[in-house]
Structures are given as structure tokens and as C-alpha cells.
Amino acid sequence: MSIGRSHWKVPILEVRKLSKEFGGLRALHNLEFEVSKGEMLGLIGPNGAGKTTLFNVITGFYQPTTGKVIYEGKGISGLEPYEIAQKGIVRTFQGTILSMDSTVFDNILMGCHLNFRAGVIRDFLHTAAAVREDREMRQRVQEILEFIGLDQLKNELAGNLPHGQQRAVAVAMALASNPRLLLLDEPVTGMNPVETATMMDHIRNIRGRGITIIMVEHDMRAVMNICQRLIVLNYGQKIADGLPVEIRQNKDVIEAYLGREEE
Length: 263
Description:
This protein is α/β, with parallel strands linked by helices. It has ten helices and ten strands.
């Protein structure tokens, strides 16, 4: 059963009759929903529900078996992941993907290169355009460091940071690529309560900048407190769509997911 409907009016993302199969395994089935500009959407469900598969289809790592993904009014299914990222859809991953032997500053700088316009040849030749853009990128990294609260750690090696700060660096890297739609895949996994609260504050501030966010997360308290709307998946299908208070009371959701967490 699907409950509730979004009250948001201007979609930034539309998923239409989306299915994804791996051989005989159906990971997503006839999935449909919209995400509006500026919305904070939570995507929840038990392990194996299809949440990460959906992220992979949206971002071009997987191609849909049937259906399509529409971003800002245009179909993006079939595009390469880098092409989708350049259009403004950027994601984080369940595992922290950092260069552990590089500094925090240099890790975030890598995220900026998605929008680096000067090009490899001009960069190699140290043209004025390349020098100017390098300066602009470094200034942007500094602004992100201050925004995320990592300025004091910018010269630390990423591998020396505790888990929570490494996750914050991964989010900062995503911000460096200037997203309009940010997909967060379990951003507080493995964090203690203090780290979780800090990350939730960062996510609220990111949305405050006008960035639309879809968040996959198993920490139900965090999801319920921060998301305006929740979509629940189970076995690749949408079983509920509504406000957090509605989702809490939905019998299908309790049986498929919330009830297990409470037990």
C-alpha cells in the first residue's frame, strides 16, 4: 500500500515505471515517485530492499531494465555516470571512499575537478585560465572546509581521522562538485550519537543552501527527525510514501522494517 502524496510542486527528479533485473533477480519493480526542488526525502527499507540499486540507476552506474529517470525535465537514463554528475546529481557511498594518504584539503580538491573547465592540456601548460581556475577551486575548498567544520583538519591525512570525520570529508567532496541533487547513502552509518547529531546538522545546512537531498539511512531516529517525506521500499517495490508521522503508523512499514528495528 502507498500512503500520502508529496505536497511539493516543482519536480527536480522523476522516476517512471523503473525496474532493474540482474539475471532472474528483480531488484526494482515498476517504481514511480517524484522529488521536488529543495525537498529533503528519506529512502528507507530493510536490507536488500533496492535502495542502493536505485541510487546506482539514478546516477548511471546501472542502466534500468525498463522505465526511465527524468532530471530537470530531461531523460538521463543511458548517460554515463560522469555526464550525470556534471548535470548536478552527485552521490556519496556506503563505504567512505577517500585517498587515505592525502590531506583533507586535497581530498576535497579532487571533488572540484568535476567542474574544472580549463582542461588537462591548459593545466599542463599552466595557462592563465588554468591558474585562475586552480585559485578558484582552492578558494571553494576553503569555503567548504569552514562550512563543514573541518578547517582545523585540512592538513591532516584522511587516514588519520576517526570514522565520523572521514564521513564528513566524503560529504564535503560531494559538495565540492557543486550538486543540485545530492544522494546520501547511509551518511551516519557507524557513527556514535555525537557524530550523528553533527552530521545531521551538516545535512540541514546543506539543504539550507537550496540543494535537494535524497538520503538512504538505517538510523530511523535520524531519518524521522530530518526528512520531510519518506518513501519505503521492500523487495524493490514502493510500499509507502508519506510524512514521517504517517510512515510510523503504517502497518506495512512496521511489518517490513520499523517493527524489526523496534524488536
